[in-house]
Amino acid sequence: MPDKVRIAIDAMGGDHGASVLLPGAEISLIRHPDIEYLLFGNREVVEPLLDRLPRLKAKSKFVHTEVSIRMDDKPSQALRHGRWKSSMWLAIDAVKKGEADVAVSAGNTGALMAIAKFALKTLPGIDRPAIATLFPTRRGDSVMLDLGANLECDAENLVQFALMGDVFARTVLGLVQPTVGLLNVGSEDLKGNDAVRGAAARLRGGMTPIKFHGFVEGDDIAAGTVDVIVTDGFTGNVALKAIEGVAKLFSESLRASFHHSLPARFGYVFARGALKKFAARLDPRRHNGAMFLGLAGIAVKSHGSTDAFGFANAIGVAADLKLNGFLQKIGDELSRLNRAPSPEQSAAL
Amino acid sequence: MPDKVRIAIDAMGGDHGASVLLPGAEISLIRHPDIEYLLFGNREVVEPLLDRLPRLKAKSKFVHTEVSIRMDDKPSQALRHGRWKSSMWLAIDAVKKGEADVAVSAGNTGALMAIAKFALKTLPGIDRPAIATLFPTRRGDSVMLDLGANLECDAENLVQFALMGDVFARTVLGLVQPTVGLLNVGSEDLKGNDAVRGAAARLRGGMTPIKFHGFVEGDDIAAGTVDVIVTDGFTGNVALKAIEGVAKLFSESLRASFHHSLPARFGYVFARGALKKFAARLDPRRHNGAMFLGLAGIAVKSHGSTDAFGFANAIGVAADLKLNGFLQKIGDELSRLNRAPSPEQSAAL
Question: Does the distance separating the beta carbons of A271 and B258 come in below 8 Å?
Answer without folding.
Answer: yes
